[in-house]
Amino acid sequence: MTSVSSSPAACVNSARPFGPTRRRLRKRDNLLKVNGYNEAFTGWGREDSELAVRLMNTGARRLDVRGWAICYHLWHRPVSRAKLPANDQLLQTAQEQEPAWCTSGLNTHLPKTAH
Question: How far is CA 85 from the centre of its chain?
């Protein structure tokens, strides 16, 4: 689970629909509006793309930070890609149904008043 800090923005990876680079700046309010990352994803793949689709569904605008912001990718052990077909289906559903909110996200970790 990716945590959202109390800062005005959180640096997270994003998906190709937001542009050719995967580094983007996300406003905390926008992450709360879509309930953050969808925790229905397991293993490797597509969670960033699905988050980007839901953000676009709210009308969130892309802000390219290349050249003026520092983003870090935390090293982690390689994760199994065995669940990639199921993750592909979750992404396809988000693209077809155009939801903004996921049912299993930040709401399971934040106090009720935060979202």
Answer: 18
For residue 9, the number of C-alpha atoms closer than 13 Å in the C-beta half-sphere is 14
| Residue whose tokens read 């980007």 | 52
Residue 42 has what DSSP assignment? -
Q: Is there a contact between 57 and 32 (Cβ–Cβ < 8 Å)? A: no
Q: What is the pTM for the complete model shown?
A: 0.72
3-class SS of residue 107: helix
How buried is residue 79: exposed, middle or buried, by Cβ count under 10 Å (0-12/13-18/19+)? exposed
Secondary structure letter of residue 61 according to DSSP: P
Alpha-carbon span 34 to 54, nearest angstrom: 7
Q: What is the mean pLDDT of each run of 10 residues along the chain (115 residues)?
A: 37 41 62 95 94 94 83 86 97 97 94 68
